[in-house]
């Protein structure tokens, strides 16, 4: 693959050099040159313009046909996720319409007014009405999109303390995640990178003397009760990471030396997601297989369950094992969550 790419690049460089030499030749004064474009050449270029227009339209249709089924556009599992999807879809529809029209105009006029012997370009200085129209329309559309985006952003980032969100720390380090629950007091114990003590297994550098830290719980699998607002406080031990939870439409940088935050309310349990083939990634072969055998499975009285798990991923290239830096997220009922939490070890008990 690398060899092929290298050959292609060398080829393009050669073509570029050849073209540059040709321009140099054409620019020579006083020599007659047979390489000046005539009507025939212009016609070919005109048709190539139309050909390219057809090419991008065909590519667009093929892309929709083969790649248009985006589960990540329809399976938002958080309250604000629906707003993010709406914003995304509206932006994409506007871009699609504008792109389709402007590309047509650009290539069609390049074809229509191709060079012809004897044809002279019309001198046309300006037209205020036209300029007004093509300035005002984009201004209104863009302002609308930006204002809508700002309102959505504020809505998402503004954490309503009255809702009493559950405080959870997400801790990033090369190359794994840890989560720290704040316990019954809903306050995280103080933590600092200087307090990390591997001999005592204090991997997050939590302050052992802080009363708020006594009921903290550190885990490697994130559990969330459905319908309960959560606010994540993100920290990083080493380099820049990014906490990315695609199904919840949530992403926030984890920056060494500071605490960042992102809050959301999960709306669909993992178990419910596993029941719905439209919500889980259809691309996974195993799910396609189960979908094929749906009737057979249901007839035998078994429950049809799809392969699915919410994930927390790292979305900043942070080193060699970045691709594998992930943590499983389980969204469950409050009762299931409480039962799971009861089994976890509190921070003081987890120390050596
Ligand atoms: Cu990372």
UniProtKB/TrEMBL annotation:
It holds the Pfam family COX2_TM. Coiled coil: none annotated. It is a multi-pass membrane protein. Residues 163-343 form the Cytochrome oxidase subunit II copper A binding domain. Its main location: membrane. The chain crosses the membrane at residues 6-24, 44-67, 87-111, 132-151. InterPro entries: CcO_II, CcO_II-like_C, Cupredoxin, Cyt_c_oxidase_su2_TM_dom, Cyt_c_oxidase_su2_TM_sf. It comes from the Bacteria. It is found in: Membrane. Keywords: Electron transport, Membrane, Respiratory chain, Translocase, Transmembrane, Transmembrane helix, Transport. Residues 64-160 form the Cytochrome oxidase subunit II transmembrane region profile domain. Its EC number is 7.1.1.9. Belongs to the cytochrome c oxidase subunit 2 family. This is cytochrome-c oxidase. The lineage of its organism: Bacteria, Pseudomonadati, Bacteroidota, Flavobacteriia, Flavobacteriales.
